[in-house]
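re: ur question from earlier - yeah i can do the single chain one, its not a big deal. heres the input i used so u can compare w yours
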Amino acid sequence: MPNDRPAPVDTPRTPTAPAAQVPAPPPERAAPLPDPGPGPTLRDPAAPADRAAPAATTPSALASGAGTRAVPDPAAPPGYRAVFAVTEFRAVFAAHLLSLLGVVVSELALTVLVYDLTRSPLLSALTFALGLLPYMIGGTLFAGIADRYPARRVLVVCDLLCAACVAVMLAPATPVAGLLALRCLVAAIAPVFTGTRMAALTDILGEGDLYVLGRSLLRIVSQSAMLIGFGAGGVLLTVLSPRGAITVTVVTFLGSAALLRFGTRDRPARSGGGEPGGTLLGESLSGARLILGDRRVRALMLLFWAPAMFVVAPEALAAPYADAIGAPPAALGLLLCAMAVGHIGAELFAGSALSPRHRSRIVLPVAAVGLLPLLVYVVRPGLPLAVAALVLAGAGAAYVIGLDQWFVDAVPQELRGRAMTLLTAGLMTVQGFGMALAGLAAEFFPVHQVVAGSGLLGTLCTLLLVVEVRRTAPGRMSDTEERDGADRHVTSG
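and the output i got, formated as tokens:
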């Protein structure tokens, strides 16, 4: 399911865009035709059609400093290789990989440290939960930062702030309450960083296929971190103390900041420094109202969120389910990794084997059926069948790669940072909420019934959203709705 981080634990790199018209794209990179257009509410009806499509450049021109964006070049290698041909993206990718692995290691080490200091399973588990809970607060109250200030400055400052927070964690005098508070602060910074980076990718890669593939690569890395990072953390904890392992994260944050500072270009703020006399909080909240008040954007955002909320149930209940079916201890690792394996495989296939047109066509059908494999749990399957169902459920995330394009098409450039910050914050929050609900339900019902129920309820909710997304597709809204959207735009301005 859609995510920009290793589930279920959050990292400050996360864990979620109008398509620029480019000259003579090659056939395999043609812009997606069905259903990706912008919703009318946030657009200015009087603006020219090409308002959101500033001049673009090829990756080679971008590397030399000309222009502002990279677009598919007929001479560039196809698929994911074309994304890596963009110099700035290589810096962003390396920074993401470096810091993500460090953060996953530190989360494991911090949990062990809190348990060593308190011997409390509750506080140890709370350390993980605090990686999710502040996301909505930070994403709602501070979202305006993503558009108010230049993206590179925001990304570097976020990295440095997180490095400072983690450095304070290393002090032996820091109490447990201080460790948890610092964990909350890092988690509140995370959605601002991730939303800013998502919006900055449209400047670096353009708003078409390269952006979609770039986002896909970052998601794949985030899912892979779950498979690699916790294993690496376990190995480090055999040779280092918990605080020694946490030190690694300080280094990775500083390395990420350096890569972003010297590997990406400095571009002006999207909103021109904010509204005159406006406060950061006011801009953040007004942006959220505009974004959630647009029917098209709201439907797309919910289509990101709803499946993610329900698909976490089998991961949250993996340990009790393994115990219920009498599986060996190694089975827990299989149950936790199966969904990530399916997600990575499906995303790689969709990004490399499908054209933008076909990725757009599969969004709604795949989203509609993505949670159905969880219904297998109704028969209380053994380990092989359960793992197969989880791999298929993870593969259902293939719809997100096309949904990315629809979302960036629907949001105007001046609101893009706030929209993507809110998207990331909501995605992390609903996953945490979904885990909590699954755990609560498992107190009253058998685990296998809870997982199957999550699949059924999630499918019903997703089907309703699929209908709404179809209704809000460009060209399908009535003239009255379009006039109402224009009126809302004028009055909100």
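Residues 87-118 form the longest helix (32 residues). not sure if urs matches, ping me
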